[in-house]
Amino acid sequence: MKSSMFAGIVLTVTIGFAIGIGGYTFLYAKGYSYLTHDPAACANCHVMREYYDEWVKSSHRAVAACNDCHTPSGFIPKYVTKASNGFWHSFAFTSGRFPEPLRIKPHNQEVTERACRSCHQDIVEAIEGPHRESGMLSCVRCHATAGHL
Hints:
Helix content is 59%, strand content 0%. It has helices spanning 2-28, 49-57, 66-70, 75-95, 106-119, 121-128, 139-142.
């Protein structure tokens, strides 16, 4: 009886601690802003400030926000990607374990590549037409600074 009561107390304290720390972090780090479509949310983290500032100066600013290029279309895929990226970005930036300069992960590069191809479909088809046999060309490989100067 004492053992199960102790286990219940430990579980309750652990859950309370996790909710408290999670809630504080969510409010302190402005985690709620990541649920919006506001590009300024990406600049909440000082590491991303330079990328945000570059986007503000780019021609893409008039037609695309961060989510348009860096999250997949569709409600569920978009928020799954945002949650995963948010967690891992927070972990990396809080622990200081991130590469400089920042590098896009393979999954996120695929998301961005699909976004490029969606918005620029006519151009991509015209370019790939003569090069079909050599495989799919990568927009991001040649235009790595598109959207960010």
